[in-house]
Amino acid sequence: MQAKAPFLIAAVSGRALAASARRAGHAVVVLDFFNDLDTRAFAKRSRACAGPGGFDARLLLQAAETLCPPKACAGLVYGAGFERRPGLLARLARGRRLYGNAPQTLRLVKDPARFFPLLKRLEIPHPETRLTPPSDREGWLLKQAGGAGGGHVVPAAEACRAGRGGYYQRRLNGRCCSALFLADGRGAYLVGFNEQRTADGSHSPSRYLYGGAVSHARLPARIRHEVEAILERLVPEAGLVGLNGLDFMVDEAGQVQVLEVNPRPPATVELYDADCRDSLFEWHLRACDGRLPRGALVRCVQVRAHAIVYAPVPVRVPPRLRWPRWCSDLPRGGLRIPAGAPVCTVHSRGPNPRSAWALAVRRKDVIRSALGAAAA
């Protein structure tokens, strides 16, 4: 019996998608920035293709041609890493079935000059946003078009100038949340709500850097209905398909304010995958084919959290470090990791969001202590 062709996964980190594909019985080839130990274990073949500031286009395209050529590829699934480079995505997808949003959709939702006017036209609430600097920058954030992970966000008052691709957004106070959803280009299915957490400021280069998330965020039913109504308007206009994330604030008045759409499987996929019937990788494929779930998708209501451990100082990973079972994205022994770079991800579960996150924080401290003795 001939083996099934593998799917090609390309993302900053492909480990979570590869694990979900494994649950569904799919073979995968992974091209990402790190080629971590557990990514290699989930993948048929894998390779690191990072360059300065993103994918090395030459390495990425060559590795894809060598490890998963179009004629032997079941399809391309991509994650973070293409927000600023839809042209590279189009080149990678050439000859392959693309399971995910088309490059033109990326261009739409990641261009502030197009996305926020679209929100305004659809009467979707969002923070005041502008391409030119306000006269008084206090209370404003400077963001980078196509930025991901929050590391590109800085207080506008502390920035010299926006530079190419920069835009300004009024800072809001409130809860930073996200919605994980499936879309078929016409409608959406909400998988779950999450509360986003920023990285510990003492161990990260940016106060807005993504630090992790907690599933099953406790939000009023009214908020859920508002988000569902937003997706009902936004999905067909943007042509969103597959797994996506909607980042939003619940402001001090209790109103939903949309910050951005992540038009690809976001990091929060792994907070639900183990508790879903089938796997979210499988549902991503189905949604791209126009099929959304009917009825409950998540079977378990236990809260899950994950948190990223950033190196507090330059470290060398101990060659014989025994990683706890609640760690993932495991770097190889001997690897030098610069200060502020991600080391691994820790995971936790609990009866409620507060306890799940508290356990994740304690586990981050355990890893930091282990790394402290290995400072490079």
From TrEMBL:
<keyword id="KW-0067">ATP-binding</keyword>
<keyword id="KW-0547">Nucleotide-binding</keyword>
<dbReference type="GO" id="GO:0016874">
    <property type="term" value="F:ligase activity"/>
</dbReference>
<dbReference type="Pfam" id="PF02655">
    <property type="entry name" value="ATP-grasp_3"/>
</dbReference>
<dbReference type="InterPro" id="IPR003806">
    <property type="entry name" value="ATP-grasp_PylC-type"/>
</dbReference>
<protein>
    <submittedName>
        <fullName>ATP-grasp domain-containing protein</fullName>
    </submittedName>
</protein>
<feature type="domain" description="ATP-grasp">
    <location>
        <begin position="217"/>
        <end position="289"/>
    </location>
</feature>
<keyword id="KW-0732">Signal</keyword>
<dbReference type="GO" id="GO:0005829">
    <property type="term" value="C:cytosol"/>
</dbReference>
<dbReference type="GO" id="GO:0046872">
    <property type="term" value="F:metal ion binding"/>
</dbReference>
<dbReference type="InterPro" id="IPR011761">
    <property type="entry name" value="ATP-grasp"/>
</dbReference>
<dbReference type="InterPro" id="IPR016677">
    <property type="entry name" value="UCP016817_carboligase"/>
</dbReference>
<dbReference type="GO" id="GO:0005524">
    <property type="term" value="F:ATP binding"/>
</dbReference>
<feature type="signal peptide">
    <location>
        <begin position="1"/>
        <end position="18"/>
    </location>
</feature>
<keyword id="KW-0436">Ligase</keyword>
